[in-house]
Design a protein that fits this description.
The protein is an alpha+beta fold. It has 3 helices and 5 strands, in the order αβββββαα. Helices cover 41% and strands 26% of the residues. The longest helix is centred in the first third of the chain and has 24 residues. The chain is globular and about 35 Å long.
């Protein structure tokens, strides 16, 4: 049981680092804070909360965007992988795809 808890803590830590580095790569100013199984991303004009739920049969990661007052502006969305969580974060922050930048430069 303890090994499972340690593995869960490591998963949250790894996703925290991935999200932090992704903001840097996307050149988006913001903060990524981890507290227990919750990762909070404050960037641009929104707050995105990512929650790890290892006991859920639907998804491991749940993501929701909050308005400035802390009121959820969208329902929690399930994400089955860290890649899906990353894609959802990018959509919520309205970050253009690298392919969009390449297309703009070429055209």
């Amino acid at each position: 049981m303890l090994a499972g808890v340690i593995a869960d803590v490591e998963k949250v830590a790894l996703l925290h680092d991935l999200l932090r580095h992704s903001l840097e790569l996307w050149q988006v100013d913001g903060d990524v804070v981890r507290a227990g199984n919750i990762i909070t991303v404050r960037a641009r004009t929104c707050i995105v909360v990512v929650r790890y739920d290892p006991g859920n049969a639907v998804a491991l990661w749940w993501i929701a965007k909050q308005a400035g007052g802390g009121i959820a502006s969208v329902r929690e969305k399930p994400c089955n992988s860290s890649l899906a969580t990353l894609a959802s974060l990018r959509r919520l922050l309205a970050v253009n795809s690298p392919r969009d930048k390449i297309s703009e430069q070429a055209g």
